[in-house]
Structures are given as structure tokens and as C-alpha cells.
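Q: What residues go here?
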């Protein structure tokens, strides 16, 4: 491709540009392109077809195609071509011309933006009357990540005001001063960069860090006193960053490069920096930062190593502070562990040195943007319709349900789905360590435990919240997870008029879940005989739903079991539904069927 330069010329007032014709006359190998109402020159109505027909034409034939009566090759575009056609078109015609001058009314359509992306400069014909219009459009271009220096003012008429930086002043007449101004303007064209339609955006990571370090203090300074409104903070940060990028001539590069800098800096100031792309990726369900150079994600149940890395441990600590600050948590050497949540409900676990030997560690379990109900779980193959019907009846008949499963098996998702079946006219109190349940019900009170402060005071554990919830007139209590002495209070609540309550425990089978609850009750610090504890469990727990993550990453309900009573000192159960594996497919995905055991329900009315 020959060296070719593209210039766009606009009139801020929309009128003809008097200096454009004499400027173009002395540019060698020129193609003039006009948009708007002009009737001069060749016309192209279908750029896609034209490119296919003429991309291989030699330069001489291309020049002849655009020849006009004025002996200057011209093209008139009745409308701007689609943005996806601009680059192929420029690749085709740039081999035949050294200069391309595009002129017409001000236009910020996607097609015109594509022309501007490849232009070396944008010349504006401006006067005192049209200067406000120029300022408005220049700000709009800055929002599109075009620097202020991209727009060059050619001042027409009287003396240039002191506060206006113009490339050239054009006298109102065509005398000697006018021709000298044209000559000066032509000389300035020597600095216009050669067009490169195939250029790719490239940001050196080292330079990007330098840009971020330089721009962040300016943005943070402007955000002081913004208040607690996240919308106001974001708008102020975006406006400040746009102005910084547009007004900083040292930040070179094409528009895509500047846009990448914009996104990276904004993510670092308002978001979670390097993790933002992973948080926005709908295929990622979990993010694991093992160290600054080792970041893994879970996609479709499988772990994958990513190319995300942090420049230093200090940047991870800054990110941690940004996560925990809004919810009043703290992490330091005296308290190096923390459970937290993001604004969207995603659960976060944090471990820092000295416990984390390789540097700060962050684990984020993303909260699905779309609330998953039983129709979605059925489509995922987590259970079948018969099992859904049974669970729906247990909720409607206010049976107490324990969801059991291992880490990452989908207990919280299932708990959300079960709670979604609760009638709207019932009052629900949810209790969690880090609030992530979203029930979508009209009458819900959400409670969250609190860790101790820097003096070791003020801790409010889940057990205390369960006791308090009993005084809040709940129809149902939902505890995100029983992992300590709160299990005793939960059982007592289920036994004293709060039927239909829900909770989860960590266990690998329904039988293990009963043993786990028994152990948790004994952790309450009350010396109860084992038989008494089991009697409490027998009276309180009706159904255990066992959730599991299989080896292929899929999550399924593998058992629905009812607690039927006690024989001597042993709790008795019966399994109603189970998942039976039948093999694996070519992709090593587990195959199997959900089946009923044929036993009648012990607890549901009618014993169906």
C-alpha cells in the first residue's frame, strides 16, 4: 500500500469552506470526497459490492473511475458508508492516491467515526459565531476517545481570541495574506501521519501501568466529596478521565488504544481492576486468585488458568480494601481472614499473609445475574419434573428442609430456588454470614452476621441472629449455612412454630448430614445427651436434599431423603428419589437418570 494521508474537514457553521479549494489544488495525487448535498463526482451507493468489484483494480483505473469535470478525482457519498466498509474501502483506494480529503457537515455516526479513526487530523473552519458549536462537538469526540489535539482550528475572519488555540488564521479576502496563510497551512500538512487502515490496537503493559499511575491521582482528587452515590461517582470519574485523556498529548496511539487505556483506568479506579473482565464474563462462575501471577477461573464446572496477573501484592491489597470497605469489614495481620460480598451478591473469601504464604488470596463465587428457578435447573439437568413437584409440595405444606452438599455443589442456588416457592404472603427472615440469597419475595428481612472490630469487640454471630429472628414474627427462617452452635437454635425454631424453614449444611450424604447436624448442636456448648439431640433432629427435620458436583463439573440433586423417625437411638430415613449414573459420553460428561424409589412420602398429606 502506498503512503496515503487522510484529512477530514468540517465547518462548525455548516457553510462552505473558502480555503478548502486552494488548499487541495496543490496537494498531489488527491481524491476529494464529499458528503451532504453536493452533486459533483462519482457516486457509490453500495460500498460492499463496489469493494468486491474493484479491490484488484490497478491504481490508474481507480483514478479514472473518480475523475470529474474539474480534473480532480472526486467522490460524492449521498450517505456515509457502514463502518465495517470503511477500512476495506480505504485499503482499496489508498493505493491510488497520496491524499484523501473528506468534507461535509458535522457527522458523528458510526460510519463517520470509522473515517475519523483513520484520519491524520480533523480541520475545523471556525469563527467567533461558530466556536461554541465547535466546543460542543469536540467534547463529544473526546467522549469517543479522540484527543483534543486531533481537532485543528482554522480561524476564519477577525483576530483570534487569546483563549483560542488555532493552527492557522484565514483572512476574509483572497489577497496576499490569504495565499500566505494557505501556504503555511500546506506546510503544516507535512506533519500529518500516514494512514494505516490495518493498524491494530496495542498497549504496552508497562506504559499502561505508567498511564494508570499518572491518571489515578487526578481522578481520585476529583472524586473527593462526591458523596455515596455510585452513579454520581461513576459519572464524575468518567468525565474526569475523558478530559484527562483528551487533554494529555503524551498519551499517544489510535482511538482503540486510548479506549483501552480508558477502560483499564476506569476499572482500576471504580471496579476490581484486573478482575473486572472476569467478573463481566458470563461463562465464569468462580474466580480464584492464588497469588499475583496465578489466577484461575471455573467455567462450566472446570478449572482454567488465565493470563491475568497483578503487578504487585500491594495492588491485590488495594483491591481487597475496595471489596471490604463498603460492608464495614477489615483485613489485617491481626485478622487475616474475611468473608465478604460484592454489590451484586457474589461471595468473596479473603486470606492474607502471614496465613497466605504466596501473597494475598481472593476467592469470588459469582452470583448469577439471572435468578435460577426450577425451570432453569431442570433444563440444566439438575433434577426432573417429578422431583420438582415433590419439593414444591414440601414447601407448600411447610416441611422443614435441609440442603446438604459439599463446597461448590450448588447449595445456595438450590436454597434460592426452594425459597422462591414460598407464598408471597409469608414473612421470611434470612440469616447469613455474607448475604447472597436473593429471594425475590415482597416480605423478606435480610440479616448478616458481623465480625469483631479492631478491638475484638462487637461481633454478632449467626447464632445470635437466629435467636433474635425468633422475636421478629417470622413465618419462615432461612439460614444460609449452619456451621456451629446456631444449629441448636435452628432446630428449636423449627420445633416451635416456624415450620417450613430452610438451611444448608456441609455433608456428602443425607446420613452424613444428620451426623453433621448432631455435631454442630453439641458445639453449642450445652451438655445435652446424644439421644435428646437426635430427638430434636427427628422432630425438626423432615427432608434432606443432597446436592453434589460431579467429576465433570455438573451439579445435580443426587438424593431426596425423608427423616422417618428413630429406632432405639438411631435416626431412620427413606430415600424417595436418586440420581443413578449410567456412564459417560465422548466429552466425559456423566450420563444418568433420575429415578423414584417407589416409596410413599412419610410427611406429605395423602402419602403420595
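A:
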Amino acid at each position: 500500500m502506498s503512503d496515503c494521508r487522510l484529512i477530514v474537514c468540517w465547518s462548525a457553521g455548516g457553510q462552505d469552506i473558502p480555503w478548502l479549494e486552494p488548499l487541495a489544488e496543490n496537494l498531489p495525487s488527491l481524491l476529494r470526497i464529499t458528503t451532504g448535498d453536493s452533486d459533483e463526482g462519482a457516486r457509490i451507493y453500495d460500498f460492499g459490492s463496489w469493494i468486491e468489484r474493484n479491490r484488484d483494480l490497478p491504481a490508474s483505473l481507480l483514478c479514472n473511475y473518480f475523475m470529474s469535470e474539474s480534473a480532480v478525482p472526486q467522490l460524492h457519498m449521498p450517505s456515509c458508508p457502514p463502518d465495517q466498509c470503511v477500512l476495506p474501502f480505504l485499503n482499496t483506494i489508498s493505493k491510488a492516491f497520496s491524499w484523501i480529503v473528506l468534507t461535509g457537515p458535522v457527522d458523528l455516526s458510526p460510519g463517520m467515526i470509522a473515517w475519523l479513526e483513520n484520519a491524520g487530523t480533523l480541520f475545523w473552519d471556525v469563527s467567533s459565531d461558530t466556536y461554541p458549536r465547535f466546543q460542543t462537538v469536540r467534547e463529544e469526540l473526546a467522549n469517543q476517545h479522540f484527543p483534543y489535539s486531533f481537532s485543528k482550528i482554522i480561524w476564519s475572519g477577525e483576530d483570534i481570541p487569546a483563549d483560542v488555540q488555532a493552527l492557522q488564521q484565514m483572512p476574509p479576502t483572497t489577497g496576499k495574506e490569504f495565499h500566505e496563510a494557505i501556504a503555511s497551512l500546506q506546510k503544516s500538512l507535512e506533519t500529518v501521519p500516514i494512514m494505516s487502515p490495518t493498524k491494530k490496537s496495542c498497549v504496552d503493559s508497562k506504559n499502561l501501568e505508567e498511564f494508570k499511575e499518572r491518571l489515578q491521582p487526578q481522578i481520585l482528587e476529583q472524586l473527593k466529596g462526591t458523596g455515596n452515590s455510585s452513579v454520581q461517582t461513576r459519572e464524575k470519574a468518567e468525565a474526569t478521565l475523558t478530559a484527562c485523556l483528551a487533554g494529555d498529548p503524551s498519551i499517544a496511539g489510535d482511538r482503540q488504544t486510548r479506549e483501552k487505556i480508558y477502560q483499564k483506568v476506569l476499572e482500576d479506579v471504580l471496579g476490581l481492576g484486573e478482575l473486572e473482565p472476569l467478573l463481566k464474563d458470563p461463562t465464569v462462575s468462580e474466580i480464584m486468585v492464588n497469588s499475583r501471577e496465578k489466577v484461575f477461573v471455573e467455567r462450566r464446572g472446570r478449572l482454567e488458568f488465565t493470563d491475568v496477573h497483578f503487578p504487585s501484592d500491594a495492588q491485590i491489597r488495594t483491591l481487597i480494601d475496595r471489596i471490604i470497605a463498603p460492608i464495614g469489614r477489615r483485613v489485617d495481620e491481626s485478622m487475616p481472614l474475611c468473608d465478604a460480598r460484592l454489590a451484586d451478591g457474589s461471595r468473596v473469601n479473603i486470606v492474607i499473609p502471614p496465613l497466605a504464604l504466596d501473597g494475598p488470596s481472593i476467592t469470588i463465587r459469582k452470583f448469577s445475574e439471572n435468578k435460577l428457578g426450577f425451570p432453569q435447573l431442570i433444563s440444566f439437568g439438575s433434577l426432573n419434573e417429578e422431583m420438582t413437584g415433590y419439593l414444591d409440595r414440601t414447601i407448600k405444606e411447610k416441611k422443614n428442609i435441609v440442603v446438604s452438599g459439599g463446597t461448590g455443589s450448588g447449595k445456595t442456588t438450590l436454597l434460592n430456588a426452594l425459597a422462591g416457592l414460598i407464598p408471597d404472603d409469608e414473612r421470611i427472615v434470612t440469616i447469613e454470614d455474607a448475604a447472597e440469597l436473593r429471594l425475590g419475595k415482597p416480605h423478606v428481612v435480610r440479616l448478616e452476621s458481623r465480625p469483631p472490630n479492631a478491638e475484638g469487640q462487637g461481633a454478632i454471630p449467626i447464632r445470635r441472629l437466629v435467636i433474635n429472628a425468633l422475636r421478629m414474627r417470622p413465618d419462615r427462617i432461612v439460614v444460609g449455612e449452619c456451621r456451629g452452635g446456631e444449629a441448636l437454635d435452628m432446630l428449636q425454631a423449627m420445633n416451635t412454630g416456624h415450620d417450613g424453614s430452610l438451611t444448608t449444611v456441609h455433608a456428602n450424604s443425607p446420613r452424613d448430614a444428620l451426623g453433621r447436624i448432631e455435631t454442630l448442636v453439641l458445639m453449642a456448648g450445652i451438655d445435652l445427651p446424644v439421644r435428646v439431640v437426635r430427638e430434636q433432629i427427628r422432630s425438626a427435620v423432615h427432608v434432606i436434599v443432597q446436592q453434589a458436583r460431579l467429576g465433570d463439573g455438573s451439579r445435580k440433586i443426587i438424593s431426596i431423603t425423608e427423616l422417618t423417625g428413630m429406632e432405639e437411638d438411631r435416626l431412620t430415613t427413606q430415600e424417595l428419589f436418586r440420581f443413578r449414573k449410567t456412564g459417560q459420553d465422548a466429552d466425559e460428561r456423566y450420563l444418568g437418570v433420575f429415578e423414584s424409589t417407589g416409596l410413599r412420602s412419610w410427611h406429605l398429606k395423602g402419602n403420595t
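A: Context that may help when evaluating the design: Residues 198-202 have pLDDT under 50 and may be disordered. The radius of gyration is 34 Å.
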